[in-house]
Specification:
The complex is a heterodimer of chains A (112) and B (116). With 112 residues, chain A is an all-beta fold. Chain A is built from no helices and eleven strands. In chain A, strands 2, 4, 5, 6, 9, 10 and 11 form a seven-stranded mixed sheet that branches. A four-stranded antiparallel sheet of chain A has the order 1-3-8-7, with no helix packed on it. Chain B has no helices and eleven strands. In chain B, strands 2, 4, 5, 6, 9, 10 and 11 form a seven-stranded mixed sheet that branches. In chain B, strands 1-3-8-7 form a four-stranded antiparallel sheet, with no helix packed on it. Classes of the chains: A mainly beta (112), B mainly beta (116).
């Protein structure tokens, strides 16, 4: 199975400042169709998960443009340009290239 | 209004069975594959299984393969998860989710507790 790792696992942030989360996969996530199926999900406290980014860098509808995704192969990054209070929660990367699908362990973002 | 509503959770003894349901409304459920994802108390997300729109393809996590069966009834816009030989480590909130390149829809989850 593809192992997804994230760093850091805990990220205290200052409101208005940028934040960055790294995600690495144990195998390349480039699929034979040319797409790289790497997703980012946000889970706010007490809520169901919500996808922010799909295929590395495509923002889902309604997701603020302060969220951006980048990367290729096995190394990926989620960036928040200016953290807002509503961004507190746990962020997960998930690969959709290889079966079974696998999530990273999650990065908990909270305010300093 | 789009909804995925899970049901069927509860407390069950180890070794017993349980069937979860996920009722979809507000979108064309029958043309999309749909997943089960679970989250143990205080833990991260774990992908469990997926079934394609027409039911022809199913994939499972290694941790549930051979014990869990995913199915769907498109006439009822409903996805199921039959869980057999339950173990304490299957205790979790189970979410159903439809994930496409255009949208992602999640239910609110249903709690399964495996305990004697």
């Amino acid at each position: 199975d593809v192992v997804m790792t994230q760093s850091p696992l805990s990220l205290p942030v200052t409101l208005g400042q940028p934040a960055s989360i790294s995600c690495r996969s144990s195998q390349s996530l480039l699929y034979s169709d040319g797409n790289t199926y790497l997703n980012w999900f946000q889970q706010r406290p007490g809520q169901s998960p919500r996808r922010l980014i799909y295929n590395v860098s495509h923002r889902d509808s309604g997701v603020p443009d302060r969220f951006s995704g980048s990367g290729s192969g096995t190394d990926f990054t989620l960036k928040i340009s200016r953290v807002e209070a509503e961004d507190v929660g746990v962020y997960y990367c998930m690969q959709g290239t290889h079966w079974p699908l696998t999530f990273g362990p999650g990065t908990k973002v909270d305010v300093k | 209004q789009v909804q995925l509503v899970e049901s069927g959770g509860g407390v069950v003894q180890p070794g017993k069975s349980l069937r979860l349901s996920c009722a979809a409304s507000g979108f064309t459920f029958i043309i999309y594959g749909t997943h089960w994802v679970r989250q143990a108390p205080g833990k991260g997300l774990e992908w469990v299984a997926v079934m394609s729109s027409d039911g022809s393809n199913k994939y499972y996590a290694d941790s549930v393969k051979g014990r869990f069966t995913i199915s769907r009834d498109n006439s009822k816009n409903t996805l199921y998860l039959q869980m057999n030989s339950l173990r304490a480590e299957d205790t979790a909130v189970y979410y159903c989710a439809t994930l496409t390149s255009d949208f992602d829809y999640w239910g609110q989850g249903t709690l399964v507790t495996v305990s004697s």
